[in-house]
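Chapter summary example.
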Amino acid sequence: MAKMRPGEKLKVDFNMNGQPIGDHRATLANYCGALVKDPLNAPLYEVEQFSQIPQENKDKMWQLVLDKFDIGLDDDQEEEERKKKYMRRRKFIMESLNKKYRNFRARLKSDYYDTEETDEDRLKEENMPNFVDKKDWEWLVKYFGSEEFQKKSQRNIKNRSCLDAGHTAGSKSFAQKAEDMYKRDKVMPGLLDVYEETHLTSDKLPVTQMASDALNEMKRLLEQRKAGEISLTDEEIYAKIKPKGKRNSRDRHTGVSPSITSLFGGFSECEKLRKEADKAMNEAAEAKKEAISANEQNKILTKKLKDVERENKVTRHFLEKFLNTIDFEESNEEYDNEEDKDEEEISGNDRRLE
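The structure predicted for these 354 residues follows.
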């Protein structure tokens, strides 16, 4: 970038999810890393996290990015669309700067703080990082040793133990990995496709036992969904196969190490999806039991109905015979009555003639 002419910018392409892809994505990431290492942009002294950096410093770093990179802010003709894209791009750059800032501080701790036993040794000139101001380093040593930071550190260590221990994407972002899969297969991969691709070795073997368990569970859930036994989305299946017990997480499955917020709206949302997925599966199981029970009841009712129909048929048969018998007797009685009337008329006529 030092050889770039004044006013020259590197074009960075973004995918549909708003993550950088293409030839200059890594250059953009490295530039963001360089910006936060400069204390004039991202101070270390009395700053515990990126959110505490003054807004004017963040605006300055955003402008420095715009001076060096064309991130497509002028690609849209409509003003409203340009505003939306501006907000999305700025949000992504701020998240990238935040991540780089955290990583920079983490490396300072692991390379210079954790290597020494006492603060006295850590503050010796030969043990201090030569690219960090002495005043800044003294404050960081004090902060790293504080009770508040130690609690946070232990919590993070515990959270790290819940990770599925690696992937095969290397330094390539998952957004770029998805783009490469699209160019290779001519089909845009989904979340589960990228997860499987980045957790298998070149020999198609899981990178870790935990990854193996997750992939087997994913396969089982996909087969159930195909059979119509469950109706989980890819995101809900992903939420179920992720390691449980982790209260805070960062995930890289759709971009340049976005937070899980970029995927599901926060870890709490991921937990919500996991619970909803469990509920859906339980409801499906209950529905299946109810369907089996209803089928059995239907069989019983069908049998009873057939029995009733048979009884009705027999009753109807006897009733018809009975009615036929009554009709016959009534007919005979009417016939006898007619004969009696005829005989009486004849007798009466004979008496009149006499």
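To summarize the output: DSSP finds twelve helices and four strands in the chain.
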